[in-house]
Amino acid sequence: AQKVTQAQTEISVVEKEDVTLDCVYETRDTTYYLFWYKQPPSGELVFLIRRNSFDEQNEISGRYSWNFQKSTSSFNFTITASQVVDSAVYFCALSEAKRHSGYSTLTFGKGTMLLVSP
Amino acid sequence: ETGVTQTPRHLVMGMTNKKSLKCEQHLGHNAMYWYKQSAKKPLELMFVYSLEERVENNSVPSRFSPECPNSSHLFLHLHTLQPEDSALYLCASSQDRPGQGLDTQYFGPGTRLTVL
């Protein structure tokens, strides 16, 4: 069975601090995808990044960066110089392949609420 | 235009009411999903439609009835709900290809449902 663990329930930082959100996953699949989504107070889940299991290169997008390490089954997310607009719930998710069908299912972590104060 | 839209955004209903949630995707995708998000619980997958055929139903009570008339529209019909069904209901879509890689799911803004 697949499992995603986000051990940090809530993190509070002051603007301009760097913050790292942890994600640890479990799967028996050799091919899988990992995702991060952001959920602001409005409710919509906003896609941030997708990473496949064969690509362990770290990725940077502006103030966001992701560290994927298969050896520790982790896919951590760092926000550099945080801003108030970064306040949201962040979800890590793992995608399971349905090999005989054309769709995928996501297993989500419980989310980490990030509060950035001015 | 927003990729995935949901209406209504907020809904309050009594336990004996019948209502429907609507989801529309403008991304040309062929798979659509209903998720339930309750307070302090992980997102729960309810239903999956791929190529307009229901392919997964995660033990959802029969008081929730999905309908997918075409690849762009997805409904969730509600009847005789319970207060514990109050939650945020999220719709998502993706472009999936059998035997190939997994595509990203894109979500709508959700319908905040309150059952009195």
How do you describe this structure in short?
Chain A is an all-beta fold and 118 residues long. Chain A is 0% helix and 54% strand.
Task: Tag the structure with descriptive keywords.
heterodimer, A: 118 residues, mainly beta, six-stranded mixed sheet, four-stranded antiparallel sheet, B: 116 residues, seven-stranded mixed sheet, 0% helix, globular
- In round numbers, the mean pLDDT of chain B is 90
Averaged pLDDT of chain A: 91
Distance from first to last alpha carbon of chain B: 34 Å
Number of helices of chain B: 0
Total count of helical runs of at least 4 residues of chain A: 0
| Helix share, percent of chain B | under 10%
Query: Which structural class do the helices and strands of chain B define?
Result: mainly beta
Share of residues in strands of chain A: over 45%
Give the SSE string of chain A. Answer: EEEEEEEEEEEE
Radius of gyration of chain B: 14 Å
Distance between the termini of chain A: 41 Å
What amount of the residues of chain B lies in strands?
Answer: over 45%
Oligomeric state, counting identical vs distinct chains = heterodimer
List unreliable stretches of 5+ residues of chain B.
none
Written as H for each helix and E for each strand, in order along the chain, the element string of chain B is EEEEEEEEEEE
Q: What is the overall silhouette of chain A?
A: globular
Rg of chain A, nearest Å: 14 Å
- Largest β sheet strand count, sense and barrel closure of chain B: 7 strands, mixed
Number of strands of chain B: 11
Strand pairing plus helix content of chain A: what structural class?
mainly beta
Reported for the largest beta sheet of chain A, the result is: 6 strands, mixed
